[in-house]
Amino acid sequence: MSHALILPILLPLVTGAGQLLLYRLPFGVQRLMGIASTLGLVLLGLWALVIAGSGEYHLYHAGDWPAPFGIVLVLDRLSAIMLALTAVLGFCCLLYASSGTDKRGAHFHALFQFQLAGLNGAFLTGDLFNLFVFFEILLIASYALLLHGGGRARSRAGLHYVIINLVSSALFLIALGTLYGLTGTLNMADLALRVAEAPAEDAPLLAAASLILLVVFGIKAAVLPLLFWLPRAYSASSAPVAALFAIMTKVGIYAILRVFLLVFALGEAPVNATAWGWLWPLALLTLALGGVGVLGSNSLRTLTAYLVILSVGTLLATISLVTPGSLGAALFYLIHSTAMTAVFFLLADLLGRQREAGYDRFSAVGPIGHRWLLGTLFFVAGIAMVGLPPFSGFVSKAWILQASAQEPQGLWLWGVLLAAALLTLIAISRTGSNWFWRPDDMARPYPLERGPLALVFAMVGLNGLLAAFGEPVMGYLELTAEQLLDPQAYIAAVLPQAIASAQEIAP
Amino acid sequence: MELLYAITLGVLTTCGIYLVLRARTFTVILGLTLLSHAVNLYLFASGRLVAGAPAIVGLSERSADPLPQALVLTAIVIGFAMTAFVVVLALKAAVELRNDHVDGENPDEDRA
Q1: How far apart are CA A135 and CA A114, in angstroms?
Q2: Interface residues from chain B to A (CB-CB < 8 Å)
Q3: What pLDDT was estimated at residue A507?
Q4: DSSP string spanning B47-112?
Q5: Is A448 in a helix, a strand, or coil?
Q6: Is-above-0.90 flag for pTM?
Q7: Total domain count for chain A?
Q8: Cβ contacts of residue A370 below 8 Å, gap of 6+?
Q9: Yes or no, beta carbons of B39 and A174 under 8 Å apart
Q10: Which of A285, A323, A401, A424 is spaced 20 to 30 A from A310 at the CA atom?
Q11: For residue A368, how far is the Cα from the chain centroid?
Q12: Of the candidates B35, B47, B92, which has its C-beta nearest A170's C-beta?
């Protein structure tokens, strides 16, 4: 058993604790520790991608307790993708924050590390209660990060965000209690077997528990009736924090994938059929609302928050088709949309600081400094966001449309997705022409910070690279989708003895 | 015992949900506390209610399930920390926004 598998959780946790202890040292030390740890996470993420690429499941038994009794960490292709994505995104956000945002409040770097630890733990764990614990770790870090910098808007948004997440934690525990009461286990693989064998009279309770879990993950992911906390929270937080939060909704989507494609997927009448039935119309409505919200936003940050909602709707609608093609396409879109919404949150800050008036509000009309340079950046990023070639948004959307065309209900997705893309295109080009085209050059532009600018350029470039190397990435994602749709292999890896004994009895 | 337990849970949850839906932060926090009590008791009951039995298998004929107790302990600790945090946050918001409404504005005063 290799202990390296727990490093993605331990490294940020220890670094964060160290940063708290060394709080009195010069600020640069904290920054360097944070950047070093996050760079380590990037390397760990790449390593995870490589070792999970073989299709093998890598396990870590905490305390060396055997699987259904102890807590296991499971690394498969999906976990590896999420780990690598979080690490790269975290690295970019931390670099951006190190240009000055991190000094606006206390303990930014320690909180950032705890947030990463919680995220990585949620992506690795193979135990449902442990998932709850890691959710709480990432949430409590995110509460504090959201409030970082202070101010009235943040307190207001923070209160909503904290309260709705506390209620969702209570619901999560209710679902866990129900599942434990019915099956006597919380290990995901074991749970999948027991749910499949559950007697028929338990089916309604199991369906109820699964739908409560769907509500919990829906609050995290921001699905339609549960998304109204998101625009205010995301647009109130500071730019690097909002950019990191781009992965937070994806945690909900990851949890939906993991739980509904593994725990509730087996048996003669799988429990997850009900969940997919609910998810499909809700996701389409979320997507439509995202499109309308993008058009109706009053600032670039709110617009980006609605872009997050739009991406969640697209993802969940594609996922709820549950075919290998649609899952692969959804994962590609997940990577693209996480990166691009993060870019847009950073861009809103970068552009807002160069505007003479109004920061990122659309109502304010005024000149902007460095018009050509920033305008070009916004134009390129806008193309990448909307999903026009040559960026990965185009590849992912084409793949989603292609995958959904094979399904009878896929036409709905075509219509809503393309309409929402059109609305996004209008909103972004309106922003571009209002900010860059109409006003004159600023007489004395504010000094341009080269570091953050180069970083945002690099992130857009990475998005282009993702499209350029689309083929190997797509191959990897197709294999990931196949692995996701084969829960038996996961169970066999986590509980080898259970599968062996089942086969002895079966013939 | 099961009936009494279930009624207690129901009353706690009802009160909790009612209070969470109120407009002022203090009552909302009280509601969250009641809700988390109800949830902790519910988790505890998921291992079935057994009286007078040790939580170790094999010591006597009947044994209580120890795992829900461990789960409840974790949930209590997390719930306690979260309540402390939300109390501080509500105080901060009340000071900064000059009122204790969950939306940050008093609908009767501000729009008058």
Answers
A1: 11
A2: 20, 25, 28, 32, 35-36, 39-40, 42-43, 45-48, 65, 67-68, 71, 74-75, 78-79, 81-82, 85-86, 89-90, 92-93, 96-97, 102-104
A3: 43
A4: T---SS--SSTTSSSS---HHHHHHHHHHHHHHHHHHHHHHHHHHHHHHHHSS-BTTSS-HHHHT-
A5: coil
A6: yes
A7: 1
A8: A354, A445, A448
A9: yes
A10: A323
A11: 32
A12: B35
Chain B neighbors of A174, CB-CB under 8 A:
39, 42
Question: What is the distance in angstroms between the Cα of B93 and the nearest Cα belonging to chain A?
Answer: 5
Higher pLDDT: A507 or A69? It is: A69
pLDDT for position A369: 83
- pLDDT (tens digit, 9 = 90+) per residue, A204-261? 999 999 999 999 999 999 998 899 999 999 999 999 999 999 999 999 999 999 999 9
Alpha helix positions (H), A147-271: 152-183, 188-197, 203-221, 230-236, 239-245, 248-258
Give the pair of three-digit tokens for residue A276.
């997919």
B51 CB-near residues (< 8 Å, 6+ apart): B1
Q: Which residue has the tokens 């390397």?
A: A43
The answer to whether B39 and B93 have CB atoms below 8 angstroms apart is: no
Distance CA A94, CA A77 (A): 25
Structure letter (DSSP) for residue B24: B
The Cα–Cα gap between A239 and A234 comes to: 9
Distance CA A378, CA A352 (A): 12
C-alpha angle B23/B28/B31, rounded to 5°?
Answer: 135
Domains of chain B: 2-107 (1.10.287.3510)
Does B86 contact A166 at a Cβ distance shorter than 8 Å?
yes
Around Cβ A390, how many Cβ atoms within 10 Å? Answer: 12
How far lies B69's CA from each of A157, A171, A378, B35, B73, in Å?
35, 18, 54, 18, 6
Q: Three-state DSSP class for A444?
A: coil
Question: Which residue in the set B42, B47, B74 is minimally distant from A174, CB to CB?
Answer: B42
Cis-peptide, bond into residue A390, ω within 30° of zero: yes
With an 8 Å Cβ cutoff, is A140 touching chain B? yes
At residue A37, the 3 state secondary structure works out as helix
* Residues of A whose CB is below 8 A from B45: 177, 181
Which value does ipTM take for this structure? 0.94
The amino acid sitting at A142 is S
Nearest in space to A243 (alpha carbons), one of A369, A342, A309, A335? A342
For residue A180, CA distances in Å to A39, A135, A271, A304, B50 come to 39, 19, 16, 39, 16
Residue A377: domain span: 3-505
Output the 3-class SS for A467-494. Answer: HHCHHHHHHHHHHHHHHHCCHHHHHHHH
The DSSP letter of residue A71 is -
